[in-house]
Each structure stands twice: as C-alpha cells, then as structure tokens.
Design a protein that fits this description.
The complex is a heterodimer of chains A (about 425) and B (about 550).
Chain A: H1 2-14, H2 27-47, H3 54-76, H4 85-102, H5 117-132, H6 144-161, E1 163-165, E2 168-170, H7 181-194, H8 197-200, H9 210-229, H10 233-251, H11 255-274, H12 276-286, H13 297-309, H14 332-365, H15 369-393, H16 411-427
Antiparallel strand pairs in A: 1-2
Helix pairs in contact in A: 2-3, 2-4, 3-4, 3-5, 4-14, 5-16, 6-7, 6-9, 7-10, 7-15, 9-10, 10-11, 10-15, 11-12, 13-14, 14-15, 14-16, 15-16
Chain B: H1 2-15, H2 19-43, H3 62-83, H4 90-99, E1 115-116, E2 122-129, E3 132-136, E4 150-151, E5 155-156, H5 158-162, H6 164-167, H7 175-186, E6 197-198, H8 203-213, E7 218-224, E8 230-236, H9 246-250, H10 261-264, H11 274-283, E9 289-292, H12 309-316, E10 325-328, H13 329-335, H14 338-348, H15 350-359, E11 366-367, E12 377-378, H16 391-398, H17 408-419, E13 423-425, E14 437-440, H18 444-460, E15 474-480, E16 489-496, E17 503-509, H19 519-532
Parallel strand pairs in B: 1-6
Antiparallel strand pairs in B: 1-2, 2-3, 4-5, 7-8, 7-17, 9-10, 11-12, 13-14, 15-16, 16-17
Classes of the chains: A mainly alpha (about 425), B alpha+beta (about 550).
C-alpha cells in the first residue's frame, strides 16, 4: 500500500531544494534518555541523604517542556535543515542538563534564575533558525564591517568596564560579553570574504591579494591584541582557528593551515616567555607532577576523578565533583567522565563527531557564499571549542579556559551556542513552502 | 500540585528495596539509549540535494573531517592513558593516594606487591589500614639496608624505592601483562596489589650472617658466581623499619644505623687490595721473585719504610726479623708481604694500576638494581687518583692503605672477578634479570693463576683458619690500619669452591683487629652453613 504512494510523494519533494528527511533519532527516545538520567540523579541525591523538593524536578520539567515545544515548532515551521541536527543538539543538551543538575547540590549548582537559561536558549535557537532559514541570512551579506565594529566595541567596552575574575574578564552583572564575539566575528569574516572570493581563490600565503590581506591581518591583530591585553587567550585561539579554516576554504590552499599552525606555535612560545599566567598553565601541562599541589592541582584532580570513574564510571550522581575546583565550567568533562566512565566518554565523543558532521552539512547545502562561510566558521568554532576544552582536561593541550558548549555552566555561553546552533539549522534549511 | 505527587512517587521508588537493582538497570539503560542514538546519528547518510553547481559554492572539505576524527581519537587515547592505564604512572597513583579524597577511588587500595626471598619468604608485605596502605617487614631489622623501607612520612629507601614502579605494577610489555591489564580494567579492586617481586636474597643465610656479626659493626656480603646474584647483604648496626621515628633520624649517632655499610661505607681495604695489585702485575707479565729486605722498603730517604707484619711481632718479642727473602708472587700473597707488594706496585706503575682499577668498574657508581635507580648504589672507590702521586703514595696504595677507601661490595666483587675468569659480574637482586658484567679485572689466564694463589693463602698462608676438609676455599685476609690507638678493621674476602666457584664473599668487622681473628671466623661459619644446606654439592 504505502509503496505505491511513495513515487508520487518523491516526485513532489524532489522539486524542493532539500527534501524533508525524518530525524533518525526520535524525540521520544531523547525524552526517555532524560527521564532515565533524571531518575539516577535524583535517586543518588536521596541515597546521599538529601530531601527532594519540587524545585529539584524543575530543571527536568523545563527541559522536557521546552524541548517538546521546540520540536513542535520546528515541525510546524517545516524544518528541512540537516536532518539529524536538532536531535544531536537535544542529545547534547540532555547530557548538559544532567551534568549541571547533578552539581546542583554542590557549590556551583543550578539555582534561581539560572533555571531559565536553558528554556530561553531554546527560544533563541528557534529564533535564529527562523531568522536565517531560506537564505534570509543573505540580508546581512554586506554588513561585515558592522559586525567587525561591534566586535571591537565589545572588546573595548570590556577593557574599560570589565572586572577580572579567575583570569577571565566579566562585564557588569557577571555576564561574559566576549561570548558575543563568537557570533560577530564569523559574520564579519564571512562578509569580508563573500565579496572577494575570486581574489583569494588559489592563493597561498606567499601570494595573497595584497590589499585584502593587509585589511584582514590588520583587523585580526587589532582584535586579538585587545584580547591578549585581557589575557583571553582561549578566545584568541578560537577566533584564529576559525579564521584559518575559513581562509583554507576560500583559497582552497592548505598553505594557510601550515602558516597558522606555525603562527600559533610561535604565539604559544611568546605566551610562555612573556605572560606568567600563561607560563604557569604551560608548565602544569608539560609536567603536572612538578608542582602537584600548586599549578598541577586542578588538572591532577580532574584526572583523579577520571581514574576513579574507570571504564564504566561511578554512575550518574554517584561521583564527587566537589573535589574538583571549577568543576562546573572548565572541568565539567572530568565530572562527566568520573560518573559515566570511559564508555560514556566514548559515546559523548561519538555524539560530538556526529553533531559536527551535521553542522558541516549546512555549509555544503547552501549555495550562497556568505551563508556557507558563516556555517563554515560556526562549525569550525564549535569543533575547536569541544576539542580544546576536552583536550585540556585529558592533558593533551594546556588548559585554556574555553568552556564545553552546552554542557559547561554559564548563561552567556549557553545562549550564544544556542544561537549558533539555530543559525546552522537555518543556513542548511532552504526549503521553500510545504 | 502535580509536582508534589510526582515527588512522592519518586521518593517511594528511591526508598524501595529494589532501587539498587533498578538504578543499575537504569544506568545500563541510559548507556544503551545513548549508544543507540549516537550510532543512528553517525550512520545517517546525508540526503542528496539537487543543487545548481555554483562557482561560489563553499563547504568544509573532507580533509577537515579527517583532522576532526583523528583529533577526537587522540583525545580518547590520551584519556585512556589516565582513566584506564593510570595505574601504570607511579607518580599519578602516588598523587591520588596522597591528595585525592574520593573514598571510592580504587587508587587508594593500590598497594606495592610483596618482596620475597628466593624461597618465597615474605620480606615486605602491604597491609591496608584505616589510614592507608602500610608496609610490614616480617624480618624486622634484618633486611633494613637491602630491602629498605617505604614509609608515608619518611619516604622510601633500598629496594622499596628502587623497585617501586615494579612493585606497583607500573612496568608492562609482555603479553601476560596485557592479559592482566584486561582483567584489571574490569575489576580493579581485585588487582589492587602489585606483582610480587622475588629476589635472589636468602633469608636463612641473611639471618645466619646477621647472628654471626652480632653487636659488632660491619658488613657481610655473599654473591653467587658467575651470575652476580646477591645471596645476602648485611650491614650492622641496623634499624627496625617497622618502628621508624623522628628521634632516630635526628640523633647523629656514630653507629650510623641508616648507613648501608656494605655499599656505601668507606674503609681502607688493607691487604685484601693486594688481589688487584697481583692481578695488574700478572696482566703486565710479571714473573719471578722480588727480594723482601727485613728493614722494609721505601721510595726515598725521607719516607718511613713499609715493613712486613713479622717485623713488628718480632720487635715486640725482642727478636730480630730476618725477612722473607726472595719470594714469588704466590708466596707473597700467602704471607701478605707488604714489602713485596709495595715494590711490586711501584714496579707495575700508576698507569697500569689505574687502568686495572678503572676497567674493573670500581671507579664509577652503579646501582645494584639497575642503571636508572638512584638507590642501592655502590659508592665508587675514593682516593684512587694515581695520576699525580709520588712513588711513596703508590707504595702505600699497593698495600691498600693511604688515601684509598673502598666498600665491602667492591672487595666481594674483586674476589668474584678472580673466581669468574677475570670478569667482574654486576650484582643483581632478581633471579630473572640477565647476568651483566661490571668490568674486567684481568685476563682469564691471570685469573686462573691468581685463583690458585688465593687457594694457597688458605692452605698455608694467613687464611689458614678457614681451611676445611670438605670444601676448597680461596681467600685473602686484610688488616686495615685506621690510625693510632684504634683497632684495625678486619677483612676477609674470598670464594669457594676453588675449582668451580659458586660463592664469592666479603666480611668486614669494623675495628675487629686482624683479618684472621674477626672476619675470617664469620666467613668460615657462613661457608659451613652453606655446606650443611648442600650449596656446594654439584
């Protein structure tokens, strides 16, 4: 019966730029995943002698409500982006909400207004998707310089008004406005490259278009110089890597990757030599045992947690994240690894691999240079954030202070990541009407 | 309110007996759900989209995908090296034991394996107490210098320090280790105790040597030839590693109980050193006889003559000493003639003696555990620099006096070198370790000659006291002067049986007097107990 019907349906969808494909992971199984996790978190808390309050159910209830509404809205709106992207984002978010609510009992828990961070993030995600789908993002094509100016304003405002806390700059009210750069800079770079693709195509770093190269380099040095002043090395790494990926894709020349890698190595050497703060982190990375109770303490406590977890983990809610300084932000992966074990980590890594694959799909779907470049930039940036954070925890790289998107605690970063995901969903969604 | 109702249902569930099993099911259910979702995500193929090929079409190229996947795999590999194989990094385990307060961390139950003697007697075992892992030494002070101690406050010494990586199970490479690793990953608690270290030591022999030395200060070493396996290594006075206290470390005692005299002591070797002079002389082709005038030998008018022991005994008894006359090397060694060896050393010359000393491996520090260990080091010979020494210094050197300082292990190694066809074995503590050489004392031909000369010492010379009817022993006595008014150090070094040596040994009794009166009887009793236990029956 159904076989007979399919040809006509196929014919109809073939006309559209992208056929609507069912998500491989249903919302029901994602909700079940959350439910299982919730039971384990709450059960561990009761087992630890805590009384449960209605308040404890709220984060889960809010997550379920907002996720169902998001999926519903996407369906009604005729979502036709990368098919598994929303499911991958929601699964990542399940991990995030479990790990964060799991630490609600400890110092840096999920309390008060921060309950609303996640549902609002889903709203921004939906909004970003709506705003950018069907090539609507092309409207921003010529606004590259505006976004660059906005980036500079954010950084300068931080230099003037910001306060320092734990090595990072915070704006008034504990917000981290530098997170906005993660949106502004890809838009600015995409705008910059979109109009001059032909000038860059096939050019290696030895023969770039001179004027454009000067503009790009000057802009980069100005922005990153200001960031270095605030010791926000993590952001510099992030933005530089993103620019490198975009350059390689615009020029089709891997020579830029070679140049950038050399530049980053040189930069790392400079940081080591001239910034005491950076040197300490590098030394703790090279030999954490040299000063186990000082600079190596945080990394080694994170590794101890991982070792305690072992292959299968202690179980969700059964670990002791309060042994770990700044567990909720930089070292959240160690908490996750302690409780879900190496097996859980392999699954999370696979999820990240799949998520980035879905993100990358957006750029290949969109035929417009500007949108594609935005998608490339955002994908590269998300990938490097995941990579640098986790690599820092497992001592593959020095700790940079970059958080784990969607899992680490923090309002600004959650919202910015939501918007990034929304944009990626929209850029890959070209279907006209349904 | 629906929230309160849900809460009540949940709480009654968590309080139920079955929650333990339920939560276990939920854990695995969670992982299964997660895994199925992730796999479905990974296996979804990108739908083909009809798209006009446009010049401006941009996308992430495949190279980035490979870099991304490779990066993630490297992360997992690095993570596994800590999370799964962290046990292999000794410093990591030690960090966790000291600073990790997670009670369930299995690192807290990781404990060093047992140290056993060659027959499986436990010399050191781990005990788990409320305050952590503690080491227990069943033999008390008997092995305190060779096995050492591992104490949470006072640190580690001896074998406990040198072999700590092996005792914690840090080293791995063989297939059986890999198998153990797999089992360990699944049940780490079960494999919390490190592998047992079986040494070449012999608790019975060690006890006997310790008893024989008694309250006297000194050291006893027995090595197996040709393997270099250490059978016993005693240093007295010693201390009880089970009862370490601050007071012991603070008190600066002349007894220096923490000093491993056998490896680290510094003593004039006295006449035992003549073994090396003889070896160097034989290698340089010395043959024939030398005259030993009764008035001794000296190198210039201003230096006091070096005389033989007989001169002084004769003087004490009011008689005149006639000297040994013209004697050969074998007789000189048997009589331990100072006059002969002082001349011989000067004749052989500083260069040749230096060469022999250097090539025999005694001038550099070696750990008897292995080259990378920082403990259990044999202290190098001191005062052996002959480059700029006047002839008189050389003459003093040749009778084992003057600036020359050595330790009992080195003299045991000299006898082992003679016993082992001239090649000095490297002492070893684990049976499985391959035998290594430390250096070369002399040519096999010279060693063969020297062997029988040392036999002659026991048959008709100063070592007559150790002559036994059922075992052919070779040896050399030593009576090392340590200054006016103090009794000499008593030495005896040798090997047995002469024709096919099995043991090389050295006994030192500080301020024990003549070599033949203090050290020799100890060596004799040790050999006797060796005979009783069937050591020398082929």
């Amino acid at each position: 019966m159904s076989r007979k019907k399919t040809p006509s349906k196929k014919k109809r969808t073939a006309k559209a730029a992208a056929p609507a494909v069912k998500s491989p992971v249903s919302i029901r199984s994602i909700l079940l995943l959350l439910l299982f996790g919730m039971m384990l978190v709450l059960g561990a808390r009761v087992g630890g002698g805590e009384e449960l309050a209605v308040f404890d159910l709220l984060p889960f209830a809010l997550w379920m409500g907002s996720a169902v509404i998001l999926v519903l809205f996407l369906k009604v709106g005729g979502y036709a982006g990368p098919p598994a992207l929303p499911a991958a984002i929601l699964m990542l978010s399940v991990v995030g909400v479990l790990v964060r609510s799991r630490m609600a009992g400890s110092v840096e828990g999920l309390q008060g207004w921060s309950l609303w961070i996640q549902p609002l993030g889903f709203v921004w995600m939906w909004g970003a998707w709506w705003l950018s789908r069907r090539n609507r993002l092309e409207a921003f094509k010529s606004l590259g310089s505006l976004f660059y100016a906005l980036s500079l304003i954010v950084v300068i405002a931080l230099v003037v008004l910001g306060t320092r806390f734990r090595g990072a700059m915070y704006g008034p009210g504990g917000l981290t406005p530098s997170e906005l750069l993660k949106l502004f800079v890809p838009l600015a770079l995409a705008g910059f490259f979109a109009g001059q693709q032909k000038k860059w195509k096939g050019k290696g770093f030895w023969n770039p278009p001179p004027f454009q190269f000067l503009v790009l380099g000057g802009g980069w040095i100005l922005l990153c110089g200001l960031l270095v002043l605030q010791r926000d090395m993590g952001m510099v790494v992030l933005l530089s890597f993103m620019m490198m990926v975009m350059l390689v894709q615009v020029t089709h020349s891997w020579s830029w990757a070679v140049l950038s890698t050399a530049a980053m190595a040189g930069g790392g050497w400079l940081v080591w030599t001239f910034l005491s703060h950076g040197a300490r982190r590098l030394e703790a990375w090279l030999d954490p045992f040299a000063d186990p109770t000082g600079s190596g303490w945080q990394v080694l406590q994170g590794l101890s947690g991982l070792y305690a977890g072992g292959l299968a983990g202690t179980g969700i809610g059964e670990g002791e994240p309060d042994r770990l300084p700044i567990a909720a932000s930089d070292f959240v992966y160690a908490v996750y690894g302690e409780e879900l074990g190496f097996i859980g980590c392999v699954l999370l890594i696979l999820l990240l691999a799949g998520l980035i694959k879905q993100c990358a799909m957006s750029s290949s779907r969109n035929p417009n240079a500007f949108s594609s470049l935005v998608a490339i930039g955002l994908t590269a940036q998300l990938a490097i954030q995941f990579f640098v954070n986790i690599a820092g925890v497992v001592t593959l790289l020095p700790v940079t202070g970059i958080t784990l998107p969607y899992i680490s605690q923090g309002g600004s970063s959650f919202w910015v990541a939501s918007i990034q995901f929304g944009l990626l969903m929209g850029i890959g969604d070209l279907k006209k009407g349904h | 309110m629906p929230g309160t109702e849900a809460l009540e249902i949940l709480e009654s569930l968590f309080d139920a007996e079955a929650w333990k099993t339920t939560s276990l099911l939920l854990r695995w259910g969670f992982l299964l759900l997660f895994a199925s979702g992730v796999l479905r995500l990974a296996l979804t193929k990108a739908p083909k989209i009809k798209q006009k090929k446009s010049a401006s079409s941009l996308s992430l190229s495949g190279g980035w995908a490979w870099i991304w996947i490779l990066g993630l795999m490297v992360i997992l590999g690095r993570q596994a090296s800590w999370q799964l194989l962290g046990r292999r990094e000794t410093r990591f385990v030690e960090f966790m034991q000291k600073y990790d307060r997670r009670e369930f961390n299995p690192a807290h139950r990781v404990r060093p394996g047992r140290i056993q003697d060659r027959y499986g007697q436990n010399l050191a075992v781990s005990a788990v107490t409320d305050s952590g892992v503690r080491r227990v030494y069943r033999f008390g002070s008997m092995f305190s210098h060779i096995v050492g101690y591992n104490h949470p406050v006072y640190g580690m010494t001896g074998l406990e320090s040198a072999a700590r990586k092996d005792l914690l199970g840090a080293g791995f490479g063989s297939p059986s280790d890999l198998k153990a690793l797999g089992a360990e990953l699944l049940d780490r608690e079960k494999y919390a105790e490190g592998p047992t270290l079986k040494t070449t030591l012999d608790a019975g022999l060690q006890r006997r040597a310790s008893e024989l030395l008694g309250d006297r200060r000194g050291a006893v070493i027995v090595l197996e030839v040709p393997s270099g396996a250490v059978r016993c290594l005693v240093s007295h006075p010693s201390f009880d590693p089970n009862r370490l206290g601050q007071a012991q470390f603070k008190a600066a005692s002349a007894d220096a109980p923490f000093l491993n005299r056998a490896l680290q002591g510094q003593y004039p070797p006295g006449s035992v050193f003549k073994i090396l002079i003889a070896a160097a002389a034989l290698d340089s082709g010395f043959q024939g006889t030398l005259d030993t005038p009764p008035n001794g030998f000296t190198t210039s008018a201003s230096t006091p003559p070096i005389r033989d022991h007989g001169y002084y005994t004769a003087q004490e008894r009011g008689r005149t000493w006639k000297g040994y006359g013209r004697i050969d090397l074998g007789t000189a060694l048997a009589k331990s003639s100072n006059v002969f060896f002082a001349q011989l050393g000067v004749r052989v010359g500083a260069d040749a003696l230096n060469q022999t000393l250097r090539q025999s491996g005694l001038t550099s520090a070696h750990s008897i555990w292995g080259s990378d260990a920082s403990t259990l080091k044999i202290r190098p010979v001191s005062g052996a620099d002959l480059s700029d020494r006047r002839p008189y210094g050389l003459a003093q050197f040749s009778i084992g006096q003057g600036n020359l300082l050595m330790n009992p292990m080195q003299l045991a190694l000299l006898s082992a070198g003679v016993a082992n066809e001239g090649s000095v074995p490297m002492p070893k503590l684990v049976a499985g370790q391959p035998a290594r050489g430390l250096g070369r004392l002399c040519s096999p031909e010279s060693a063969e000659k020297l062997k029988w000369m040392m036999y002659k010492v026991v048959q008709e010379g100063t070592g007559r006291g150790i002559k036994m009817s059922d075992l052919a022993v070779a040896g050399k006595t030593g009576t090392a002067e340590v200054g006016e008014g103090r009794e000499s150090h008593s030495w005896f070094a040798g090997f047995a049986p002469v024709s096919d040596p099995h043991w090389a040994f050295c006994v030192l009794v500080e301020n024990g007097g003549y070599g033949s009166t203090a050290a020799l009887p100890i060596a004799r009793s040790l050999l006797r107990s060796g005979i009783d236990r069937g050591e020398f029956t082929p």
